[in-house]
Every structure is written in structure tokens, then in C-alpha cells.
Amino acid sequence: MTRKTILHIGLEKTGTTAIQEFLHSNSKTLKGSGILTPQSIRPRNNYWLAVSSYLSHRSDALTRALKLENQQQIIEFRTQLIAKLRQELAENTDCPNVIITSEQLQSHLKSLGEIGQLKTILNQAGLAEVQILLYVREPIRIAISHWGMAIKKGAHLEAEDFEPNHRRVQHILNFRKVIENWQQVFGAENILVRRYPEGAAPEVLIKDFLAATKVANPSLQYPPMDTSKTERSNRNLSGGSLRILNAFNGKSDLIKQLNSNRRLFSRLEATVPGSGFSPPEAVVASFEEYYRESNEWLRANFFSDQDSLWSKHYRPSAEGLDLEAASAPLADVLGLLEASLGLLQESDAKASVAPKSIGSKLRSRLKL
Q1: How far is the C-alpha of 11 from the C-alpha of 298, rounded, in Å?
Q2: What gap in Å lies between CA 144 and CA 275, rounded to an integer?
Q3: Sheet order of strands, 129-136 included
Q4: Are 96 and 33 in contact (CB under 8 A)?
Q5: Are 165 and 99 within 8 A, CB to CB?
Q6: Domain 4-139+167-232: which CATH class?
Q7: How many other CB atoms are found less than 10 A from the CB of residue 332?
């Protein structure tokens, strides 16, 4: 049986978590409609498929999560993944359609060789007819989301990190290069590009995804049965609190130590929520200029009936991007981290943070 496969590769920061939660919550209903969302390559986010496509070992968040320490282990992992996927497909012959989703397929497979390895894996598992689906979004908006996420994980961003050609974001935001790489491996006729519905409710994105994948089933449930994962993954902090954390990250690795404690950051996000950095006009202009040719190529090739690629252009607020500023939310942030120490110790008896006031540590190390 020839199966039709939709391979949703992101891009990052374009609602992939919402799509994945929707597919996972409705997996049984979808299967009843003849659409398989494979569980053997990891439920929800099928990132195991990305790791299996690595041609050389690298230590990143994905290999560390899977405890893959060398290339031989990746090869063995790949062999097992192909076998399990083949078996899952064989057990679901009543599903002629397959949907696979992981933003890491695009963000982590950067070379033609690795994208080609991915195609080989799919072919060996029995998936030969593959269509690539990706969502695009104004580059500066994707970058803003990346900056906030990096700081919450303990990174200290300096001026060079906000350049449009920085390695953290360039391989995602150069849409022309991304699409041409995937076209070269899978064929231009098999690339489907959609625009992320900026500012719209999540269900608008889901409806667009269902239209793109030609999934029509009135019994599908939305919102997803469990929205908590989507909500946790996509919260952001205010620009002021992010600047404070960024300044602190330049002086201490404490936030990096604490970032695995989800309850701590849930409280932080609830107390000082916001839309992340609002970069100054110079940064916004640099992104517009740097990606102008790529964006125009995208418009001409996929949205030629539109005069403008983005329906809502990002415009900076007056807040700016003063990286080292300490503003009004400082006391609240310090107090929240201090109060969260008890939660940390309760949930992790092996916490590397000494049993003393986090707030005092922050004040001392920042000399506030």
C-alpha cells in the first residue's frame, strides 16, 4: 500500500506545540479516519526522527535527552527506529495517510546530507510519498521568541546575539535557503508553505493546518483535551524581567541550574508576564534589510497574489532593548525567585543551590 505522508517540519515559534497537542489529543479519532500519527518515533513531537538523521554525532539537547554519546549509538538508534516505525505501519494498514511533526526536523537537520538521510529513513520504513509542510512568520518575531527562551534557560545575550545573521536564528530565518534545501531532496512539487496567522487564536492555526493537510472530520475536538502543555511552553515574560534575568545570567549560572524547575518558572511567568523583548528600531530594521531578498523570493514563489508577505508587520515599542537595565519589576522578580526556593528544595532533594535566599544571592551578585 502506498501511503501519503505529511511531514510537518515547523518552523520553530510558529505554533508547533499547539498543532502537536491537537494531533495527540485526537490521535484515536484521526486513526478512525485513516490518518496515523506515529507513536513509535515519540508521541507528540516526533523529534526522534531528527536525531536518527544525524550523520555525525553532536552533543545537543536531543542527543543528551536520549543518552546517545557517539555516532555508533545513533546508527543503532536509527536501525531500531526504522524497525519500530515499519512495524507500526504494518499494524495500521487501514491508515493510508500519515502525519509526522517535529520542528527539530528543520532546525536540527541543516545539511543536504542529513535531509537526505531523513528521506532514506522514511523510504526504508515504507513511506515513499512525502509532502513537506512548514509555516513561516516574520523573522523578527521568531527571533524575539528565541531570545526570550534562551534567557529563561540561563543564557546571557550580548549585542552580537541580536544580529540578524547570528547562528542561533539564521538557519531558521533564511526561508529561501531552508525551502531550497528541502526542495532539492524531496522535490519542489512536494513543498507546501503556509503563513502563521499572527495574532489569531490558536484554533485559527489548527483550522489552517487541517485545511493544508486535507483532514476533514467534524468529530475532531478543539481546543485540545489538554491545553496545559501548550500554555506552559508558550508563555513569555515582560521585557523588563527578561532584561533583568539577562543581566544576572552574565554574572551567575544560577538560572541555568534552576531552569529545569518548571514550577519556579511557571510562577515567574504568571507574575511578570509579557510579550518578550521589544527591540529598538535599529534592530528591527536590520532584520528587515538582511532578510529582504529571502522574503521577496518567498512571496514571489508561494504568495505571488499578495502584495505584502506579512499581514501584520512588527513595530517596536518605546521600551527598547537596554540589555543591562534594572527596572521596576526587579524587586518582584527577586522576591519571586526567593520564594520559589522552597518549591525547588521540595521537588529536588539534590538541588545544587545552597539553602539560602536566592533573592539575597541575586542582590549580592548583581551588587544591587
Answers
A1: 14
A2: 9
A3: 35-36, 97-101, 4-8, 129-136, 191-195
A4: no
A5: no
A6: alpha beta
A7: 16
Q: How far apart are CA 11 and CA 258, in angstroms?
A: 28
Cα 196 to chain centroid distance, Å, stands at 14
For 184, the enclosing helix (H) or strand (E) is helix 175-186
- 303's enclosing H/E stretch is none
Q: Report the C-alpha gap between 365 and 368 in whole angstroms.
A: 8
Tell me the C-alpha to C-alpha distance, in Å, between residue 19 and each of 6, 78, 97, 206, 207. Answer: 13, 25, 17, 6, 10
Burial of residue 224, with CB atoms counted within 10 A of its CB: 0-12 exposed, 13-18 middle, 19 or more buried: buried
Determine the Cα angle at 129 with ends 124 and 133, to 5°: 110
In the chain, domain spans: 4-139+167-232, 237-274+328-366
Cell numbers of 343, please?
A: 518549591
CA 34 → CA 43, 89, 312, distances in Å? 18, 12, 37
89-93's contacts with Cβ under 8 Å and 24+ in sequence apart are 89/3, 89/36, 89/38, 89/125, 89/126, 89/127, 90/126, 92/31, 92/36, 93/1
Cα end-to-end distance, the chain, whole Å:
67
Residues 168 and 109 sit within 8 Å (Cβ to Cβ): no
- Per-residue pLDDT of the chain (368 residues), as tens digits, is 789 999 999 999 999 999 999 999 999 999 999 999 999 999 999 999 999 999 999 999 999 999 999 999 999 999 999 999 999 999 999 999 999 999 999 999 999 999 999 999 999 999 999 999 999 999 999 999 999 889 888 899 999 999 999 998 999 999 999 999 999 999 999 999 999 999 898 999 999 999 999 998 888 887 655 544 444 445 677 777 787 778 778 877 777 777 666 666 676 677 667 777 778 889 999 999 999 999 999 999 999 999 999 988 898 765 544 434 434 444 555 555 555 544 444 444 444 444 344 445 555 544 44
